[in-house]
Specification:
The chain is an alpha+beta fold. It is built from 17 helices and 17 strands. The strands form six sheets. Strands 6-5-4-1-7 form a five-stranded mixed β-sheet, sandwiched between helices.
Length: 523
Amino acid sequence: MANTSDTSTTETAAPATTASEETVRDANRSTTPGSEGFKNFIGSGWAERDETLPQAREQASFAAARRAKVSAAFTGQRLIVPAGDVKQRANDTDYPFRAHSAFAHLTGWGSDSEPGAVLVFEPTTDGHEATVYFRERAGRDSEEFYANPAIGEFWIGPRPSLAHVAADLDIATRGLEEFDRVIDAVDTATLVLREADASVTERVDHARIRFAAEQALSTNASDAPFSLEVGGSHEPDAEVARVLSELRLVKDGFEIAQMRAAIDATQRGFTEVIGELPRITAEVRGERVIEGVFATRARLDGNDVGYDSIAAAGPHATILHWTRNDGPVVPGDLVLLDAGVEMDSYYTADITRTFPVNGTFSEVQRKIYEAVREAADAAFAIVKPGIVFREVHAAAMQVIARKTAEWGFLPVSAEESLEPENQFHRRYMVHGTSHHLGLDVHDCAQARREMYMDGVVEAGMVFTIEPGLYFQADDLTVPAEFRGIGVRIEDDILVTADGAENLSAGIPRTADEVEAWVRGEAR
């Protein structure tokens, strides 16, 4: 059954209408009855709902602490952080909803969050009052209950009440219709996370312009910030995105526990892929089987995959973001699997392993693989509080430059290649070695460079280490036996008080361990 279609054959009047675009998309073929008799019949005879309120979820206290930091950063200003809404895939079908990461971080609401919800920080004399606005479930005596395929419980199942969410998240809640009052109160000091929901951002832009115009008419025009425009860039809003991004650079206890759980689930997914190699190699699109096996584990243990899985066999492994995953998996080739499970809290793992399909590396494959592992180990060895984040990449590149120079692939020595104006070894590894990880697979991406790439590493940070070597099938700078081989090893690293922990070290890493893993032998 399509998830938003009403194709019943009842002879009837037009359906009830709502503001939902979903209803509009379906209206011309709906057969939902519209008579008063039907409305009365379908709206009656239901058992009382159990409205036992839950205890606050584990992350509620952590989210409250994060909101306190945001409040301190924007004293006296109204701040609007939308969850975002569903995105259309095709006509009346939508992509699975995922709330914006900043909204999830500040509310603790993850995979069960409501589309269209908005978090508002309303300034008070001593900080802010935080409120989540969302569309509460409809009463069973309303037409929305049965006639709205986007949000009606007949169509999508039970939805929470305001009281339930307030208790669950330990935060004040109000109906989404009351958000209009927030928009009416918007002034030019009000800030919005622009990227989260275009419709909310547009409403805020219009309201700020309206306020500025009213101020200009009643006072001095020079006092009104007429640089505001609908849909335009607005530097104070960019500051919101930056602050919310930088807030996630250091993970709290809940976040670290969720990362561990995501990595454990990812390990199970990888192991299940290895176990399905006979079926994988038998299919013409074996890469799709890999993708499907891992996605099943992600849905069983978490919310979904944290990003499009890369299941790259043979020469596809030299394509950094190969997500088409439609090729065969051939014994003798390598498979590069880059995948991560996203938990219901939205925290995701990001791990890559490269393994030989037949359980044995060729001589050249092993040489490349162990060079990449050496680079990864060199990068990991320097991780501790106090280093600069970019030094992790530099440590890996020293090994990559040395190895490619030893093999005769560079026009200069390794030392010369490492000079900023040269970097010839980067032909074979054009991506960076590390990125922060958390709610987003590339977490904290809007942080300032001086806080990210040039930032000082702190305990509680979680990031990847993922060097690789990629020799394209048509690369004439390398011998023929190297061409078409791609290797990447990616681990998720937690910075500790005095060093670092490789959270994904339990997944086989050395060439010997990987071979034993694929063969099903005890390590």
